Amino acid sequence: MVDTMALLPSFIRPTRMTKRAARPSGRPPAGDEAVLDAPDDRLSPALVAAGRGEYAAAAELLAATRAGAEWENRDRYVSRLAAFARSRPEWFEEWRTAAPRDPDALVLGAQLAVNRVWPSPARAELLREVSPLITAAARADDRDPVPWRIALDHARGSRAGHKYFGELWEAAVRRAPHHYGCHVAALRYLAALWHGAHHECFDFADRAAQDAPADSLVQALPARAAFGYLTDGCGPEVPRGRLEAAADRAVALSGRFPAADPWPAEVRNKLLYVLMRLDRWDDARGQLSLIGPYATSFPWDRFSDDPLGHFLRLREHLLADGSRTVPAGLMTVPSDPAGGHRGHVRADDH
Prior knowledge:
58% helix; 16 helices; 2 domains; 350 residues; two-stranded parallel sheet
Protein backbone atom coordinates (compact mmCIF):
# COMPACT_ATOMS: atom_id res chain seq x y z
CA MET A 1 0.00 0.00 0.00
CA VAL A 2 1.19 3.52 -0.75
CA ASP A 3 2.68 5.38 2.21
CA THR A 4 0.48 8.42 2.71
CA MET A 5 3.39 10.34 4.21
CA ALA A 6 5.28 9.91 0.95
CA LEU A 7 2.59 11.98 -0.70
CA LEU A 8 3.14 14.89 1.68
CA PRO A 9 6.71 16.08 1.10
CA SER A 10 8.45 18.20 3.70
CA PHE A 11 8.85 21.18 1.40
CA ILE A 12 5.19 22.24 1.69
CA ARG A 13 5.15 26.00 2.41
CA PRO A 14 2.32 28.43 3.13
CA THR A 15 0.61 30.13 0.17
CA ARG A 16 -2.33 32.05 1.61
CA MET A 17 -5.48 33.30 -0.06
CA THR A 18 -7.03 36.57 1.03
CA LYS A 19 -10.80 36.35 0.53
CA ARG A 20 -12.87 37.01 3.66
CA ALA A 21 -16.57 37.46 4.32
CA ALA A 22 -19.08 37.39 7.16
CA ARG A 23 -21.83 34.81 7.23
CA PRO A 24 -25.06 36.00 5.60
CA SER A 25 -28.57 35.67 6.92
CA GLY A 26 -31.85 34.95 5.20
CA ARG A 27 -33.23 32.27 2.93
CA PRO A 28 -31.74 31.12 -0.36
CA PRO A 29 -33.17 32.59 -3.56
CA ALA A 30 -36.21 31.11 -5.24
CA GLY A 31 -35.68 28.04 -7.40
CA ASP A 32 -36.03 29.93 -10.66
CA GLU A 33 -32.95 31.97 -9.70
CA ALA A 34 -30.71 28.93 -9.25
CA VAL A 35 -28.05 28.28 -11.89
CA LEU A 36 -25.78 25.32 -12.55
CA ASP A 37 -22.00 25.70 -12.82
CA ALA A 38 -22.15 29.44 -13.31
CA PRO A 39 -18.87 30.94 -14.57
CA ASP A 40 -17.35 33.84 -12.67
CA ASP A 41 -17.03 37.35 -14.08
CA ARG A 42 -13.67 36.61 -15.69
CA LEU A 43 -14.55 33.31 -17.32
CA SER A 44 -17.96 34.32 -18.60
CA PRO A 45 -16.71 36.73 -21.32
CA ALA A 46 -14.23 34.11 -22.53
CA LEU A 47 -16.99 31.53 -22.89
CA VAL A 48 -19.24 34.01 -24.69
CA ALA A 49 -16.45 34.86 -27.11
CA ALA A 50 -15.68 31.18 -27.66
CA GLY A 51 -19.34 30.68 -28.47
CA ARG A 52 -18.83 33.18 -31.28
CA GLY A 53 -15.81 31.23 -32.47
CA GLU A 54 -13.26 33.68 -31.05
CA TYR A 55 -10.34 32.50 -28.92
CA ALA A 56 -8.63 35.79 -28.00
CA ALA A 57 -10.53 36.29 -24.73
CA ALA A 58 -9.74 32.75 -23.55
CA ALA A 59 -6.09 33.19 -24.50
CA GLU A 60 -5.88 36.48 -22.59
CA LEU A 61 -7.59 34.97 -19.54
CA LEU A 62 -5.27 31.98 -19.29
CA ALA A 63 -2.22 34.13 -19.99
CA ALA A 64 -3.22 36.39 -17.10
CA THR A 65 -3.57 33.47 -14.69
CA ARG A 66 -0.13 32.21 -15.69
CA ALA A 67 1.49 35.64 -15.40
CA GLY A 68 -0.04 36.13 -11.96
CA ALA A 69 0.60 32.55 -10.79
CA GLU A 70 -3.15 32.21 -10.12
CA TRP A 71 -2.98 28.44 -10.23
CA GLU A 72 -6.35 27.65 -8.66
CA ASN A 73 -8.12 29.98 -11.08
CA ARG A 74 -6.06 28.66 -13.97
CA ASP A 75 -6.99 25.07 -13.20
CA ARG A 76 -10.69 25.87 -13.05
CA TYR A 77 -10.64 27.93 -16.20
CA VAL A 78 -8.73 25.25 -18.11
CA SER A 79 -11.27 22.64 -17.01
CA ARG A 80 -14.27 24.78 -17.98
CA LEU A 81 -12.83 25.89 -21.31
CA ALA A 82 -11.87 22.32 -22.18
CA ALA A 83 -15.40 21.15 -21.39
CA PHE A 84 -16.75 23.85 -23.70
CA ALA A 85 -14.25 22.98 -26.44
CA ARG A 86 -15.31 19.37 -26.35
CA SER A 87 -18.66 20.30 -27.86
CA ARG A 88 -17.59 23.51 -29.65
CA PRO A 89 -13.96 22.94 -30.75
CA GLU A 90 -13.68 25.38 -33.66
CA TRP A 91 -12.37 28.33 -31.68
CA PHE A 92 -9.78 26.19 -29.93
CA GLU A 93 -8.57 24.53 -33.13
CA GLU A 94 -8.09 27.98 -34.65
CA TRP A 95 -6.09 29.05 -31.57
CA ARG A 96 -3.91 25.93 -31.65
CA THR A 97 -3.22 26.42 -35.33
CA ALA A 98 -2.31 30.09 -34.84
CA ALA A 99 -0.09 29.51 -31.78
CA PRO A 100 0.96 25.83 -31.56
CA ARG A 101 3.59 26.51 -28.87
CA ASP A 102 1.46 28.77 -26.68
CA PRO A 103 1.63 27.34 -23.11
CA ASP A 104 -2.02 28.18 -22.56
CA ALA A 105 -3.18 26.45 -25.73
CA LEU A 106 -0.99 23.47 -24.87
CA VAL A 107 -2.41 22.97 -21.39
CA LEU A 108 -5.96 23.39 -22.67
CA GLY A 109 -5.26 20.88 -25.45
CA ALA A 110 -3.92 18.35 -22.95
CA GLN A 111 -7.04 18.67 -20.78
CA LEU A 112 -9.30 18.40 -23.82
CA ALA A 113 -7.52 15.26 -25.03
CA VAL A 114 -7.92 13.59 -21.62
CA ASN A 115 -11.60 14.55 -21.50
CA ARG A 116 -12.27 13.12 -24.94
CA VAL A 117 -10.96 9.64 -24.20
CA TRP A 118 -11.98 9.39 -20.53
CA PRO A 119 -15.47 7.84 -21.10
CA SER A 120 -14.11 5.14 -23.44
CA PRO A 121 -13.94 1.51 -22.29
CA ALA A 122 -10.43 1.58 -23.79
CA ARG A 123 -9.50 4.58 -21.62
CA ALA A 124 -6.23 3.17 -20.27
CA GLU A 125 -4.88 2.44 -23.74
CA LEU A 126 -6.11 5.67 -25.31
CA LEU A 127 -4.68 7.79 -22.50
CA ARG A 128 -1.20 6.53 -23.26
CA GLU A 129 -1.46 8.24 -26.64
CA VAL A 130 -2.24 11.52 -24.85
CA SER A 131 0.97 11.52 -22.79
CA PRO A 132 3.03 13.61 -25.26
CA LEU A 133 0.47 16.43 -25.08
CA ILE A 134 0.72 16.58 -21.29
CA THR A 135 4.52 16.49 -21.46
CA ALA A 136 4.52 19.38 -23.94
CA ALA A 137 2.23 21.42 -21.69
CA ALA A 138 4.43 20.78 -18.65
CA ARG A 139 7.57 21.82 -20.52
CA ALA A 140 5.97 24.99 -21.87
CA ASP A 141 6.01 26.67 -18.43
CA ASP A 142 7.91 24.90 -15.69
CA ARG A 143 6.11 26.86 -12.94
CA ASP A 144 2.63 25.70 -13.87
CA PRO A 145 1.14 22.90 -11.72
CA VAL A 146 -1.93 22.44 -13.94
CA PRO A 147 -0.25 20.10 -16.46
CA TRP A 148 0.86 18.04 -13.48
CA ARG A 149 -2.70 17.88 -12.15
CA ILE A 150 -3.73 16.65 -15.61
CA ALA A 151 -0.88 14.12 -15.43
CA LEU A 152 -2.18 12.89 -12.05
CA ASP A 153 -5.64 12.34 -13.52
CA HIS A 154 -4.01 10.68 -16.52
CA ALA A 155 -2.09 8.32 -14.22
CA ARG A 156 -5.30 7.29 -12.45
CA GLY A 157 -7.10 6.69 -15.73
CA SER A 158 -4.23 4.69 -17.21
CA ARG A 159 -3.83 2.65 -14.01
CA ALA A 160 -0.26 3.77 -13.44
CA GLY A 161 1.70 2.25 -10.56
CA HIS A 162 2.09 4.11 -7.30
CA LYS A 163 5.84 4.70 -7.74
CA TYR A 164 5.26 6.61 -10.98
CA PHE A 165 2.31 8.42 -9.44
CA GLY A 166 4.44 9.45 -6.47
CA GLU A 167 6.99 11.01 -8.83
CA LEU A 168 4.24 13.01 -10.54
CA TRP A 169 2.86 14.06 -7.16
CA GLU A 170 6.19 15.40 -5.93
CA ALA A 171 6.64 17.35 -9.17
CA ALA A 172 3.15 18.83 -8.81
CA VAL A 173 3.40 19.98 -5.20
CA ARG A 174 6.92 21.29 -5.74
CA ARG A 175 5.31 23.86 -8.02
CA ALA A 176 2.27 24.63 -5.86
CA PRO A 177 2.34 22.94 -2.42
CA HIS A 178 -1.33 23.55 -1.62
CA HIS A 179 -2.90 23.29 -5.05
CA TYR A 180 -6.39 21.93 -4.48
CA GLY A 181 -6.81 20.30 -7.88
CA CYS A 182 -3.62 18.28 -7.46
CA HIS A 183 -4.69 17.17 -3.99
CA VAL A 184 -8.10 16.05 -5.23
CA ALA A 185 -6.43 14.17 -8.10
CA ALA A 186 -4.18 12.42 -5.58
CA LEU A 187 -7.10 11.57 -3.30
CA ARG A 188 -9.05 10.12 -6.22
CA TYR A 189 -6.06 8.03 -7.25
CA LEU A 190 -5.68 6.68 -3.72
CA ALA A 191 -9.41 5.96 -3.49
CA ALA A 192 -9.23 3.96 -6.72
CA LEU A 193 -6.04 2.17 -5.63
CA TRP A 194 -7.36 1.38 -2.13
CA HIS A 195 -11.03 0.84 -2.92
CA GLY A 196 -12.79 0.66 0.44
CA ALA A 197 -9.74 1.71 2.47
CA HIS A 198 -11.29 4.98 3.56
CA HIS A 199 -9.16 5.36 6.67
CA GLU A 200 -6.05 5.68 4.52
CA CYS A 201 -7.74 8.26 2.29
CA PHE A 202 -8.72 10.22 5.40
CA ASP A 203 -5.12 10.02 6.64
CA PHE A 204 -3.90 11.64 3.45
CA ALA A 205 -6.63 14.29 3.43
CA ASP A 206 -6.23 15.16 7.10
CA ARG A 207 -2.46 15.54 6.88
CA ALA A 208 -2.78 17.72 3.79
CA ALA A 209 -5.34 19.96 5.52
CA GLN A 210 -3.23 20.23 8.67
CA ASP A 211 -0.27 21.43 6.61
CA ALA A 212 -2.30 23.90 4.53
CA PRO A 213 -3.17 27.52 5.40
CA ALA A 214 -6.54 28.05 7.06
CA ASP A 215 -8.03 29.61 3.94
CA SER A 216 -6.63 27.10 1.44
CA LEU A 217 -9.18 25.01 -0.44
CA VAL A 218 -7.20 21.98 0.76
CA GLN A 219 -9.08 22.47 4.04
CA ALA A 220 -12.05 20.94 2.19
CA LEU A 221 -10.12 17.78 1.28
CA PRO A 222 -11.22 15.76 4.35
CA ALA A 223 -14.84 16.57 3.46
CA ARG A 224 -14.09 15.19 -0.01
CA ALA A 225 -12.86 12.01 1.67
CA ALA A 226 -16.04 11.99 3.78
CA PHE A 227 -18.16 12.31 0.66
CA GLY A 228 -16.33 9.34 -0.84
CA TYR A 229 -16.96 7.26 2.25
CA LEU A 230 -20.61 8.24 2.57
CA THR A 231 -21.38 7.40 -1.05
CA ASP A 232 -19.20 4.30 -1.45
CA GLY A 233 -20.93 1.79 0.79
CA CYS A 234 -17.90 -0.43 1.33
CA GLY A 235 -14.88 -0.76 3.58
CA PRO A 236 -14.57 -0.56 7.37
CA GLU A 237 -16.61 2.00 9.27
CA VAL A 238 -15.14 5.47 9.73
CA PRO A 239 -15.80 6.87 13.23
CA ARG A 240 -18.46 9.55 13.42
CA GLY A 241 -16.00 11.92 15.07
CA ARG A 242 -13.72 11.83 12.05
CA LEU A 243 -16.60 12.67 9.71
CA GLU A 244 -17.68 15.50 12.00
CA ALA A 245 -14.14 16.92 12.09
CA ALA A 246 -13.97 16.86 8.30
CA ALA A 247 -17.27 18.70 8.08
CA ASP A 248 -16.16 21.24 10.70
CA ARG A 249 -13.03 22.06 8.68
CA ALA A 250 -15.08 22.64 5.55
CA VAL A 251 -17.69 24.73 7.41
CA ALA A 252 -14.92 26.97 8.74
CA LEU A 253 -13.43 27.32 5.26
CA SER A 254 -16.81 28.08 3.69
CA GLY A 255 -17.36 30.89 6.17
CA ARG A 256 -14.18 32.63 4.96
CA PHE A 257 -15.60 33.26 1.49
CA PRO A 258 -18.32 35.67 0.39
CA ALA A 259 -21.88 34.39 0.26
CA ALA A 260 -23.41 33.60 -3.13
CA ASP A 261 -20.00 33.42 -4.78
CA PRO A 262 -19.27 30.95 -7.63
CA TRP A 263 -15.66 30.47 -6.45
CA PRO A 264 -16.40 28.22 -3.39
CA ALA A 265 -19.71 26.91 -4.78
CA GLU A 266 -18.52 23.37 -5.46
CA VAL A 267 -16.96 23.05 -2.02
CA ARG A 268 -20.21 24.25 -0.47
CA ASN A 269 -22.43 21.96 -2.56
CA LYS A 270 -20.33 18.94 -1.57
CA LEU A 271 -20.35 20.06 2.06
CA LEU A 272 -24.13 20.40 1.96
CA TYR A 273 -24.44 16.71 1.16
CA VAL A 274 -22.03 15.68 3.92
CA LEU A 275 -23.87 17.81 6.50
CA MET A 276 -27.23 16.31 5.55
CA ARG A 277 -25.84 12.79 5.83
CA LEU A 278 -24.58 13.70 9.31
CA ASP A 279 -28.04 15.04 10.28
CA ARG A 280 -26.58 18.52 10.86
CA TRP A 281 -29.67 20.23 9.56
CA ASP A 282 -29.06 23.74 10.88
CA ASP A 283 -25.55 23.74 9.43
CA ALA A 284 -26.91 22.43 6.14
CA ARG A 285 -29.43 25.27 5.95
CA GLY A 286 -26.58 27.67 6.71
CA GLN A 287 -24.69 26.33 3.71
CA LEU A 288 -27.77 26.80 1.53
CA SER A 289 -27.71 30.49 2.42
CA LEU A 290 -24.02 30.67 1.51
CA ILE A 291 -24.53 28.74 -1.73
CA GLY A 292 -27.21 31.19 -2.86
CA PRO A 293 -28.09 30.51 -6.51
CA TYR A 294 -24.89 28.60 -7.33
CA ALA A 295 -25.59 24.90 -7.72
CA THR A 296 -22.78 22.76 -9.15
CA SER A 297 -22.83 19.54 -11.13
CA PHE A 298 -20.58 17.85 -8.58
CA PRO A 299 -21.79 16.24 -6.39
CA TRP A 300 -25.38 16.16 -7.64
CA ASP A 301 -24.57 14.46 -10.95
CA ARG A 302 -23.63 11.43 -8.86
CA PHE A 303 -27.30 11.07 -7.91
CA SER A 304 -29.20 12.18 -10.99
CA ASP A 305 -28.87 12.98 -14.67
CA ASP A 306 -30.53 16.30 -13.77
CA PRO A 307 -28.13 17.75 -11.15
CA LEU A 308 -29.84 21.14 -10.95
CA GLY A 309 -33.24 19.55 -10.48
CA HIS A 310 -31.80 17.24 -7.85
CA PHE A 311 -30.29 20.16 -5.95
CA LEU A 312 -33.59 22.02 -6.04
CA ARG A 313 -35.51 19.01 -4.74
CA LEU A 314 -33.06 18.60 -1.87
CA ARG A 315 -33.31 22.29 -1.07
CA GLU A 316 -37.10 22.17 -1.06
CA HIS A 317 -37.13 19.34 1.48
CA LEU A 318 -34.42 20.94 3.59
CA LEU A 319 -36.26 24.25 3.80
CA ALA A 320 -39.66 22.74 4.56
CA ASP A 321 -40.94 24.03 7.89
CA GLY A 322 -39.20 22.16 10.67
CA SER A 323 -37.96 19.46 8.28
CA ARG A 324 -35.12 17.36 9.64
CA THR A 325 -35.30 14.61 7.03
CA VAL A 326 -34.73 14.21 3.31
CA PRO A 327 -36.13 11.26 1.32
CA ALA A 328 -33.53 8.49 1.20
CA GLY A 329 -33.80 8.29 -2.58
CA LEU A 330 -32.34 11.79 -2.88
CA MET A 331 -29.29 10.92 -0.79
CA THR A 332 -28.06 7.62 -2.25
CA VAL A 333 -26.05 7.06 -5.42
CA PRO A 334 -28.08 4.85 -7.77
CA SER A 335 -26.48 1.66 -9.06
CA ASP A 336 -26.24 1.03 -12.78
CA PRO A 337 -27.42 -2.29 -14.25
CA ALA A 338 -23.83 -3.53 -14.56
CA GLY A 339 -23.12 -2.84 -10.90
CA GLY A 340 -21.28 0.03 -9.31
CA HIS A 341 -22.43 3.60 -9.12
CA ARG A 342 -24.15 5.59 -11.80
CA GLY A 343 -22.99 9.09 -12.60
CA HIS A 344 -21.14 11.02 -15.25
CA VAL A 345 -17.60 9.84 -15.82
CA ARG A 346 -15.41 12.93 -15.65
CA ALA A 347 -11.72 13.51 -15.25
CA ASP A 348 -12.15 17.03 -13.90
CA ASP A 349 -14.76 16.80 -11.14
CA HIS A 350 -12.85 18.70 -8.49
